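seq/struct pair 1
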Amino acid sequence: MVELLQYFNWTYVSAVYTDDSYGVHGIKLLKSEAKKRGICFATEIQLPVIYNEATYREKIGQLANLNRTDVITLFCIGAAIMPMLNIMAGIIKNFDQIHLFGSEAMGNSWLLDNIAQIKTGFVYTRLISNNIPDYQNYLENLRVENINSNMAALIKLSYEQIMNCTFKNGIKNVQRCNSSQTFGTSLLPGYSFYVSDRVIDAVYVFARGLHQVLKATCPSLSNCEQTTKISGSLLLDTIRNSSFPSVDGRRVDINSEGEVKGGYTFHYVIPGNKIGTWQNINIGSWLGRLKMNASSISVLKSISVKAQCSEPCKDNKIKQRIHDKPVCCWTCVECPAGSIAINETTCYPCGQGYLANKQTRCIKIHEIFYSLDKRISKFLVIPPLVLSVLGMVCLLFTLYIFIKFNDNPLVKASGRELCYLLLTGLLLSFLFPIVCICRPSRFKCQTQFILDSLPLTISLVPIAMKTNRVVRIFDPTRRITNRPSFTRPLPQIILSILLISIQIVLLLALVIMQFPKEKIVYFSSTEVHLVCSTTQTQILFAHMYNSILIIICTYYGFRVRNTPSKFNEAKCIAFAMYALCVMIVAFFVVFVVAATGSSNEILQQAIQSYRVVLLAMVILFCFFAPKVYIVLFPRKILFNEESTAVCNSQTDQVLVR
C-alpha cells in the first residue's frame, strides 16, 4: 500500500481505521512504512467496530474540511465500511472527488456491490488467490445436516446469508431453509474462494510442522508417549524457515519470522455508466516489488488528485519545516546567493568563481577583463581608445610632414634625430590602450607592464636632451667662441640610448623579481575579474626614473623661460613640462585613491590607460603642433622682432645646428 502511495506521489493522506486488532495493527504498520518513504497523515480517525451513528458522525466530522489531501486510506473490517462511507458521503463536501484507498478487507464481492452505490472512485488491495477445484466442489455439495455440532452454527449463518433464508421459526416473509439442500451454484464468485487457498495452506503448515516434530521425537510414529507433550515453541521453531508445495501448485515459503511471502493485486473501482454498476480495473500487482499496468493506470492518472501538504520546492529553494505540522509539510526558502539547493534540503555554497543558476547547478562565472565587454562601462574603455587612434593619426601625419620637409630649416633646427626618437616613444604610448584591451596572458601582461613606463622614458629623454642643449647654448657664463659639447646629433642619440637603457635595466629587474602574469580576482560573489598580477609597488618603482626625468625637464624648462623670443621652442617645452607635472600629480592622487579605496583593478587599469594616452597627447601637441603649423603655413608668420615667433631665427639655428 505504501509503495502504491509513493508511486502516485500521494504523500499527504488521511487514515480511518477500526479499533479492532486488524485496524489498529494494520494502521500501525502502514504508518511505520509510510514514515520511511516520507509519507505522513493529515488526520487519523479511529472508529469503533460496533456501529454507533452519533459516534461515527462525530469522528468522521473531522474529515469535513479536508485541506491539501483528497486521499483517505481505510483499514477497517467489512461490517464498518458501509456505514462509514454513507456518513462520509453526507458530511464531506465534494465527496465524489475524494479517492479512497482500502486494504484487502474492501475486496469482498458483496462489499463491492454496496460500495458501488457510493459515487466516488476507490482503490483496494486483494490477496492473490487461486481457486481450488476440489474445495469448490466440496462447498457446492455441502449440506448443513452433514455438519458436526462444532461447525453447524457457523455454516448455518453463512447458509442463511447466501441462500437468503432462515432456520429460525416464526419469521414472516422469509423462506425457511432446507438443511438437506446443497449450496450449489448459489455461492457468489470469489466469496468462498477469496482466501480459501490461504486457509488450506494454514492447515497444511500446522499439519506438516506437527508431522516433522512427531518424526523427530518418535520415528516409528507408534506408541509414543511424547506425542502428548509437544510444546508450542518447538512446533513454531519447526514451522519457521520451512517450505512446501501448495495444493494449487504454488510454493509456500515461510521465513524466520514465521511470515509467508504473499502477493497482492491492486484494483481501481469507479462508478459505471448505469446506476448501480461499477467498473473494476486491475491497475497492478505486488510480488516483492510493485508492478503497474501502464494501460490501466492512465485512467487514474488522468484524474486530478491532491495529496500533498506542500508543493515541491523549485528555483533554488529548500524545504523548511512548519512548526506543529507533519514532516511532509514545509515552506520553501530560497538559498543565499552563490548557493544551490541539494535534494531540496540543504543549501550548498558554490566555490569562488561559481554562481548558482535556477537549475540548481553551480556554473562558472565568465571572467571580466578590461575590454569592450558590455559588462564594463564604456566610459572606462572607449575614450582612451579614441584618443589612442586620434593620437596615432596625428603622429603619423607629423612624421609624414617631417619626412617630406626633412630639409626645411625649422625641421633641421628642431633636432630631427631626437624628434624621431620622441615620436617613437609617443607611438608606443598610443599603443598602450590597445594592448590593455587584450585578454590577459603572460605575454600581454609583460608587454603592458613595459609599455606603461618605457614609452614615457623614450619621450622624456629627448626632451631632457633638448632642454639641456638650449640651457647650455644660452648660458651667459659660456664663452661665445666655444661650442658646447655633446650638441651634435650623434652624441645626443648615443647619450639618449644610454639614458633609456637605465629604465630598461630597471624594468628587467622588476620583471625578474615578480613576473607579470594573468590572475583571477574575485571582486564579488557574482563578479570575477581577470587582470595582470602587476603590483602597485612594481608600478611605483617603474615610474621612479620617469619622475626624476620629469623633474629634470621641468627644471630645464624653467631655466629656458627667458630665452630669446625667436627661439620659443624652449617656451613650448616649459609649458609641456608644467602641464605634465599637473597631470601626473592628478593621476597619482586618483590612482592612490582607487588603489586604496577599491579592489577594482579594472578601474585602476582604466586610469593607467587614460594617464598614458593623455600624457602622450600633451607632449605631441605641445612639441609638434607649432612646428607642423609653421612648416605648412610659413607666409602667415610675421618675422619681426616685436612679434611672437614660433620658429628659430637664422642665427639661433646656426648655433643649435
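seq/struct pair 2
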Amino acid sequence: MHHPSSCPAMRDFKRLLSCLLAALCAACAQTMPQPSGPLAFNAATVGSPGSRATAELYRPEGAGPFPAVVALHGCDGVSPHYRTWARRLASWGYVVLLVDSFGPRNLRTVCNHGRDVPPELRAQDALAAAAYLRARPDVVGSRIGVIGFSHGGWTVLKSVLASDAGVEVTHPFAAAVAFYPGCEMPRSVLLTDTLILIGDADDWTPAARCERWRDIVMKHGHTVEMIVYRGAVHGFDTSRPPHAFAGHIVGQDPAAAEDAIARTQTFFRQRLMAP
C-alpha cells in the first residue's frame, strides 16, 4: 500500500503547490503597504526634554489626507507581528505610525518586568506620536486612532483616560482598540470609544479585570465594547500555536483572530473614516 506522500505524482503536485503558495505570498507582500523607513518625532518622555522617539511609518497609496492610527507593540518590542498589523491597517486606508517604545530606552523586551517601561510613560509616547501625525499634511488630524497589544494594549487603556497617563489629554484619540490588555483600576474619565478583545483562557491579562475596568469607565458616556473569546489565550492573533512564554501560555486561535481583525476594521471604519 502506498501512502499519498510516497507517490511521485503526489510529491510533484505538493512541490508545485508549495511553489504557487510561495509565489502568492511574495505577491501579497509586494502589494501590501511597506514602511517608509524609520523616523523620529519629539517625545520628551524618552529622556530629557527634546528627546526623540523612533517609529516606522506606513501609508496607503495616494496623496491623502487619510485618517491615521498609532500602533503600540507588546512587551517583546517591535516584531514582525506588529509590522503585519501596521501593513494591514495601511491597506485599510490609514497612515500608521508603529512606535518603538523600547529601542530609544536601550531595551529589547520587558516581558518579565513590565514596569521597566510603565504604560503611563508609553501612553505619553502614544500621545506624542498622535501630535506628530496631526502635523502631517497627509493626515486628517481629527481622525487619529490607537491600537495596542498586551503591554501596548495596557498602554492604550492609559492613553484614553483623561489623566491616567500622568498628563492631561488635550487631544483625545478618536477610537481605541486594545488586544488582550492589562487592565488596572482607572483613575480618571474615559475620553474615547474603546474596543477590548481578549480570551477567557488568558492567564497573563485576565478578562475579569477588564470587565471591571469597562464597568467603571462606561459610567461617563463613552462606549466600551468588550469581546471575550472562549478558549483563547494571550496573543491569540499571533502565528504560533499555544506555548509557554514568560510563565504564561500564549499563542494563536485562528477563529478568534479572524473575528477580532474583522471587528477592528469595522470599529475603526465607523469612527475614523469620513461618513
